[in-house]
Design a protein that fits this description.
Elements: E1 5-7, E2 10-12, H1 23-35, H2 43-64, H3 66-74, H4 78-90, H5 99-108, H6 112-127, H7 132-145, H8 156-166, H9 176-186, H10 198-214, H11 223-234
Antiparallel strand pairs: 1-2
Helix pairs in contact: 2-4, 3-6, 4-6, 6-7, 9-11, 10-11
Length: 239
Amino acid sequence: MRSSTHVHGRKIIPQRAGAAASSTAIRCRRKFLRYFPDGFRDETYLEWERDYKWETHLRWQAALAEPEFGRLLRAGEFAEVASRAIRVEQQSRHSMIFSFEKMALRDAVRTLAGATAFARGLYQFLHGGGSDEQRFSDWVEVVGSLPRRQTRVLTWPLLTVFGFIADPKRHLFMKPMVTRAAARAYGFDLHYSSKPGWATYRSLLDFAGQVRRDQRDMRPRDMIDLQSFIWVQGSDEYP
């Protein structure tokens, strides 16, 4: 890690990425530091991007950490699991999914069959055995099979938001348009398909891994930092 300089008592991250970083990765780093000069420890970054996501994770841990999640399943409290999961996301200062996606999910878990499939499928995805590929593919099947009224439930944001909230060390959230724009800006070949599946999710994790390696001197803590870096590159909020 390179030593930082100080300007008016404030630590400024140098405008250089890792030695192997591409010119596009360096441009993206410069854009991020233009908004957040102290990188992932910048006070404005914490306020705008990180803190509310971490607080949402802490609420998840209080409501549906693995022991409590398992207890609810054993008690047959499937509707309670679904209700808690939805409530944790909705209480976020900045919701990560669209209102129509929230409505679609609420409709999908109104029935006992829908709530049961959702609760069991989510537990298996987060805490079950088997490979990452198998667990994710099974989760895609579960979400795709949930009851649908008007709007489809199987969207990338709905599919990825709960893993990201529950375990931001392992799982990454994706808004397709923003993520694709960020990948283009970064020069990363994201193997995207609008139909959710493992190949795209694996490519998304590879994208995050590339960002982690290139920006390692900024010491990203978890997927929250990596998702936020990606968001800054592709979102209209950061022109």
